[in-house]
Amino acid sequence: MKKLNYWNLKDFIQNNKLIFLQAYWLLYLPWFMYVEKHVTTHFHVIHMELDDVIPFIPFFCIPYFLWFGYVAVAFCYTYLHDKQEYVRACLFMFTGMTIFLIISTIYPNGHYMRYSVVLSSGFFDQLIRELWATDTATNIFPSIHVFNSIGAHIALRRCENLRDNKLVKYGSFTLMCSIILSTVFIKQHSVFDVMTALLMALVLYPFAYGNAPKNALQRMRNYMQTRRLRKKYKDVQW
Q1: Would you list the domain boundaries of the chain?
Q2: Over 80: is that where the pLDDT of 216 sits?
Q3: How far is CA 35 from CA 9, 129, 144, 167, in A?
Q4: Is the pTM of this model over 0.85?
Q5: Where are the alpha helices (DSSP H) in 82-210?
Q6: What CA–CA distance (Å, rounded) separates 142 from 145?
Q7: What is the pLDDT of residues 127-142, one digit of tens each?
């Protein structure tokens, strides 16, 4: 068995520190599963009259499922090609997700719209049946599907080598819109959840995409560079 090269591992960690921002999922997933398990019957009902007008369209489960790949691609691509936008995307999406978890914890919420839907034996209905079996109609406000779709689109559109790419520009926008629509067309969310997710995105955008994240990243780079120089020239009095 080949012996693990300690220095290669150390260099990898040194050169890929920003990837460890994804450790946030170690906080998010257990917290989310906790509220999913404990918020099942006693919750504040989220509902708007507009919800009753929107039809149930099973096909929209496809863009709903595409959300998982969409967000993953946004993180991976920006990490590989534009570290600054990667940090901003993490700050934007992870902040919104944390706000969502706090709201779900202190204000349990859900809806009863699924009871008005009769699922058939069709392919898309079967997919929705599987989705509803694992994703409850609780902890829905604000919609993270909507919020992170906006975050993924912003990240890809701002990425330096994609800014002039029309395919990405229109393709990403179309996918973002279809995911947002899917949340109400398959009765996963109320219109209220969509509206509050849009509002949260508007509020957090200046926070994540102002000068503060850029300056923080530059300060971190300066610190790491100074640290490497101090280590290299440790015999020099600073």
Answers
A1: 60-208
A2: no
A3: 37, 21, 14, 39
A4: no
A5: 83-106, 123-134, 144-158, 166-185, 191-209
A6: 9
A7: 999 888 888 889 999 9
